[in-house]
Amino acid sequence: MTTTTHHRWTHYLAVWLALVGLTALSFLLSLTHLGAIDTVFSLVIAAAKSTVVLLFFMHLVEERFSVAVVPALAVGYVLLLVALMVTDVLSRHTYPKTPLLFGEDGVTLPDPAGEPADRF
Amino acid sequence: MTEQSRHREDIEAGDLFADVPPPPPPDYLRDGRGIRSWLLTTDHKRIALMFYAVIVAMLALGGIFALLLRTELLTPDQTIMTAPVYNRMFTLHGVTMVFLFMIPSIPATFGNFVLPIMLGAKDLAFPRLNLASFYVYLLGTGVTLAAMVWGGVDTGWTFYPPYSTSTESSVFPVVVGIFIVGVSSMMTAINFIVTTHTLRAKGMNWFRLPLFVWAMYATSVIILLATPVIGLSLGLVGADRLYHFGIFDARFGGDPVLFQHLFWFYSHPAVYIMILPAMGVISELVSTFSRKPPSSYDAIAMSSLGIAFVGFFGWGHHMFVAGMSELDAGIFGGLSMFVAIFSAIKVFTWTATLYRGRVAFNTPMLYFFWFLFLFTFGGMTGVAVATQSLDVHWHDTYFVVAHFHFIMVGGTITAFLGAAHYWFPKMFGRLYSERMGLLTSVSVFFGFLFTFVPQFLLGNAGMPRRYYSYPARFQWLNVVSTGGAYLLAGALLLTLINLLCALKWGRRAGPNPWGSHGYEWMTRAIPIKHNFETPPVITRGPYDYHLPEEMPHVDPQAR
Amino acid sequence: MNELLRRLLFLPPQASTLARDIDGLHYFVIISTMLGALLVTVVGGWFLIRYRRAYVDAHPDEYDVQARPPLWMKIAAVGSLFLLFVIWWSIGIRQYLELRVAPEGALEIYVTAKQWMWKFAYPGAARTISVLYVPAGRPVKLILTSRDVIHSFYVPDFRIKQDAIPGRYTTEWFEARSPGVYEVLCTEYCGTGHSMMRGRVVALDPGDFDRWLGGADLETPLAELPPQQYDPPWVVGQTARAPEVDPVVIGERVAETQGCVRCHSIDGTPHIGPTWAGLWGSVVPLASGDTVIADGAYLTESIMDPMAKLHRGFPPLMPSYLGKIRPAEVAAILAFIQSLRDVEAQPAPPPATRDGGAP
Amino acid sequence: MSTRRLAEQFEDLAKQDHAARLAMWIFLASEILLFAALFALYTSYRAMYPDEFARAAAHNNLAIGTINTFILITSSATVALALWAVRGGLQRLAGWLLIFSIGCGLLFLVLKGVEYGQHFRAGIYPGAGYRSAELTGQGVVLFFTLYFLITGLHAFHVVVGLAVLCWMTAGSLRGRFGPDEHVRFELGTLYWHLVDIVWIFVWPLLYLLHR
Fold first, then answer.
1. Residue A94: inside a domain, yes or no?
2. Helix, strand, coil percent content, chain B, rounded in steps of 5
3. Which of B312, B316, B325 sits opposite A77 (nearest CB)?
4. Residues D13-67: pLDDT tens digits?
5. Which of A38, C296, D40, D60 is disulfide-compatible with A34, CB 3.0–4.6 A?
6. What's the number of domains chain A is made of?
7. Best residue in B335, B347, B372, B387 to probe C by mutation, most C CBs within 10 Å?
8. Is residue A88 assigned to a domain?
9. Using the beta-carbon criterion (under 8 Å), do C196 and B384 form an inter-chain contact?
10. Topology of the domain covering C247-339
């Protein structure tokens, strides 16, 4: 535990400026209409920003390994959940890919069985 | 019994310090009297006992529900209850057993009791949080049970939408109750992890941790990372009922299969929440009763962590016929096998531990033996149902029911009973009747086999689960299963009676009746409030059976 | 051998083309599972007896604290198990793909599941409930969806199962090897009638099937088949095509049996409750001051929870029908009310009786 | 300055502090997993309805979202500075920094409320309550349902974080913290930073989807 490490206040100011800069960058990139790739950029920037917050504001850089591994593990499992769930959505062969809507009067559902669709 | 004869018995049992001046502090059971000293205690051992009482009650409750279900299934059509009652009953059984009994069972009772002692600690890192987790658990249990009695829930413990969002039963309060119970288990889990990190006695490095501690540690990791997901998913189901968010509702463009992803992201690892503590218990039993270190300490310890880690990767094998993509089916089927590999490493290691040991055949060891068979068979059928094409036939049939009961009853409850016998002397300072213990253990095993082996066959024959009435050709297997269930229930009742009798009339046990080298046996016969009179210094591993047996080394001044 | 194992394991008949292969893997997996469990148990049990304390204490040289199996044995055990699992997986995924991907040119039949019945729509106009007619010896692809909650279409004899999901179409396929009757079960829990949601697959001789599909009235196709193997399903299917049932007619009957018409008139005369004549689609003034369009959602809510949006000017008398009425009956009543939309309502609402009149 | 109490079960204060920090980090990890379910749903539905999601996101008020991002980042920085001040013994400064952060948090909530109000006026409600006529489509409704769920859950965390900050402010103005007594203060700041981090991801996902 090296909590005795004491930065100058300018240290935090610099971190804050970096965060503001990254936010502005992300904002400006979003205005340039990059297409589908913009999500990747903005998420990479978001990851960079949160890493900065974790390391410097939350002092993860000073913490022991046993503490630092905790958020890493959590992020890993978030990625796992997201990745495998999206794989399913993107690769499944049921159709249509997006659910059919059951309308109030049951008109929007193509009705293979020719039954009047349920009204509720 | 006169005072004198009890004193003599104390001396015979090795409790030599009873009357030696200066009087040692009273044991934890007598340290503070009155109901307040229990309800407001921060002593992990007393909290463990309070958990123990409630959890056994939950087991009994879940068992009664199971008996009612099995009775209903004696005949193909209505026997004792109607279909809506039956549907509520199996939901009650599932929710009670999974959320109220199985998940907190071993961690909250035996984990709470022995984990700090095994670490040489005075208590858990956050004793008040520990007490709070008990009351949060009580609150959650109360809410859940009240809601189930009040309106009942007929969704099954899986709460699949859109059924759970459209049924008229009172899903919302039950979901809230489960959420609260989840918070409780997270409190316990945080406590265990932090305690393991910070409160190890001097000289205890990570590779001197008892294997039970490793198992509890791995369990806690799963609880902490998985429980929030189920909390939120069930919360969404509840919100959907209240506000019609329709996040899983096809009428609003939602996809109910996504709920299944989220649900099993928790509930598949939850299986390991239930079985890992059992594995920890088994590791302790094997070593103690064969007087040998586990044939590979590292293999067991690391495979616990491995199960915790890889356990998150296999959730999709619950969804092979749910409209999931073939790609995901392939990925999940493959990833599921890794857990089985880690479990197999444990099974091999336990078996190899017996080799050239000095095996004492006590009741806990008998439970270990049952565990060995039931868990291996249950585990391998687990990989079998993760085999995609076979799962198409087996999914949601009684085969699956039989499989997970082999793991949960055959694995967890067997280990729970083993632990209940094994640590009984440490908890209460007395010995249960060994003969009755062996007898009840054998009956538990046969009751179990008669209950669940027919269910494998029923599943093969195609009987779906959650069936209130079934085609008549399934009947005789169901009758056998019901008979087995009664045998099992009777055996469990006898076990309880045996242990309760031992509380009052059991022989005094002494500090280390099994001759174990585990650290928890180095305390006095019944530990004192802060476990050790002087902080212990660990100079050997917990399984160093090549060293001579030692006296409890925590009372240097008494010796 | 196949037949013996099949009977030992209580597996149903292998009535589809893929069933035999799947059962082959089944035998392999189950036998290796049993052998594995038995091996561990026998070895463990042997150790328990061989090294029991009484014996070892008499023969101290048997006891060896450090004894552990050689490394190669561990690697071999874990490695062979891993290999076994890989074999299971590789056969399993191949068969799974076969099960999932229907061959070209399969006969497509739409299946609609609802609480608690199966409805089948064939090419052309043919439609049946609970009984699925298929030609034997020809691949049949089922395209499933659900009207309400998730159901699962399971034919044990074919070793197939697929969830029917609301809002989506899923598929499964099979090819019945020979004419016969096979049981359909619902395997995804779907409510009170879940276990009664059974049906039958009737595999006909292809010629018979084509004639049936073409509209020829096969008197009783089942008569030529072997005696019925299973209990009749709860939702009794027709042996011929389902007659057209008008939901309006059913709705009228339900309205009578449930006692709706004791308070709600259907000809527009004022009565205890709002009349149903011209109600559908009209603007309903509520006691709370709001208004609401009388559509299916509102009417359903009013049946289940009448006090939630009370019609202004009517006493709060109506009991909740929650749990007393089946969804299908609600649907029928709604169809009935809808059929009354053009009936002229009488203009004057009845005076609101605060103390209530009729029970 | 109060002297620190060593709980019975710990051998020294360093261990006790480590325990507290570790517990807090574990708690934060489980908080991350709480949001994970929503993010997973978001990603899956976005994969199903890419165009409708982009259309719906374009309807969100980018200005408010971006200003809120700056606000949270700034409050995060001042909270970090407050911890620095406490460690340096400047308790009153810490108190004022925290008050500034609380102000930021409140401003964030106010802006959030303004944005919700705009949505409600446009008929945009979660789930079945959705009644906007000009912006339709299943994916749009799902987007806004998720929008309300994610921002609502985040706003709940902001409120909890504000309560924690208030408690910390009161403590520092009364001089309850100090160079040797800052662990509980530190834990509070960690929670606020987590709130910030979640928003850092929410912002691009819900606002920056201009294709």
1. no
2. 70, 0, 30
3. B312
4. 888 999 999 999 999 999 999 999 999 999 999 988 888 898 898 888 899 999 9
5. A38
6. 1
7. B387
8. no
9. no
10. Cytochrome Bc1 Complex; Chain D, domain 2 (1.10.760)
